[in-house]
Amino acid sequence: RVSRLVVYAFSSEGGQIMRSLILALVIPSALLLVSGCGKRHFDVVIRGGTLYDGSGDVPVVADLAIRGDRIAAIGDLADAVGLTEIDATDLAVAPGFINMLSWANESLIQDGRSLSDVRQGVTLEVMGEGFSMGPLNEEMRQEMVERQSDIRFDVVWTSLGQYLQHLEDRGISTNVASFIGASTVRVHEMGYEDRDPTEQELEGMLQLVRDAMEEGAVGVASSLPYIPAPFAKTQELIALATAAAEYDGMYISHIRNEGDEIFAALEEFISIVRESGARGEIYHLKVSHKRNWDKLDEVVALIEAARAEGLPVAADIYTYHASSTGLNYDLPAWVKEGDHRERIERLEDPEVRERVIAETEMIPPEDILLVSFRNEDLRHLTGKTLAEVSEMRGTSPVETAMDLIVEDDSRIGTVRFTMSEDNIRKKIALPWVSFCSDSASLAPEPPFTNEQPHPRAYGSFARLLGKYVREEGVIALEEAIHRLTGLPAANLKLVGRGSLTADAYADVVVFDPETVMDRATFEEPHQLATGVVHVFVNGEQVLRDGEHTGATPGRFVKGPGWNGSDG
Fold this sequence. Notes:
It is a single chain. 35% of the residues lie in helices and 19% in strands. The protein has 19 helices and 21 strands. With 567 residues, it is α/β, with parallel strands linked by helices. The two termini are 39 Å apart. The radius of gyration is 25 Å and the shape is globular.
């Protein structure tokens, strides 16, 4: 039948359209049938790679086949033919990596390629640390528009699920999931006020959590040092976590203190997990300030005691000894109450400023690097420390910080050198720790190059595989891959993600374990990682030979509370 169709197409009766169709579709298919008689046919066959299935087990050399958006076969596939064939000899083949704390909320609207993460093998961005992109009331939508800087966008969604679907519809290269922010639902119902919610307000917050869980949120997240979260008492957080637990969601938290009061903060976190029945995870586990570094062993002991009790408690980290937050972080909570305009007006009041100076205990200003300004007239200060700018201006560090915040009309992004490199190694060695970037997903081009971000945006995962696995041997490669894939997928209760098994979603990364490495530095952060060769998301290739293909097959990945079909 194929031969008769070809003869007709090229006869006098056959038209140009028919000939074009034959050339484009029929002949390649016919040739494939001829060349592949007796063979199994797949969209992609990855041959001869060292397969790490995400479980932490010893890897095996095998072939892997993809059909559609799923892994179709694993093993000796000598009898298989792929439309795309990849020789993975001497390369590692693993499930796509999961970024447990991504701030790609806005950067994916600007650039759906998610380049800095894809180049490290990330295929799923998990967002929502305390603040999520929904639910929004009209006032919150207006504030989101007004506070935009270089990335400009229309807020065409109201709920969190609508936002995530909006990303998928626009086209993104990575999958996305999100927690609903505890601060977001608080602002939705009661603004930024320093008080307890009324019974009606709390019920409204709980309903927002339930609605988000049914839309596909993976749990509820708190970020307790950041306004208005410090105003929320433990019982409020237990109530929110309990609502998420009704849908098998997680409670994940940037705990209330990571320095002098870390034990009290940790006890609060554990009590929330215990009382709510939710699984619990600590965002970017750390012990800040040199005077506290020796507390890490006791912190770990408390977490492992909770795990021994049967509480499902875990943590994630980024692989750097510096954190990143706003310049306003050390200012007293009372001065940050209210909306953004109220905070700025307060910092302009001479009496308030005197009180702030008296009450603020700041880390050494030479350890605070200024990296992100909204005001273009201040961007010449990017890359300078607060100590340097304080000396330039002839004002104290606290005064300089307040002045800069007012002039920039923002919190100002900073990098803060407060952690121990030895403690990073200890945390990496813990079997219940997964990994994150705590950053947007960027590209080394405008508008992202208007800022000097923390290098973790470009290197957190590649740094794990290059520095801490290959060079230092802190953990084995199969264990590192488990903690980048199978562990976070299980913690989030995601079906079909985080593993190389038949019928799992084809989120696959192929990388060279001998060369994978981060390149970004604090001085020059806009440098893409190297060593990741190929990346597939839902069966489509988004990275080929280290270069982005432009494909945008990313999806909104739903949590366990969603009652639709799997996604």
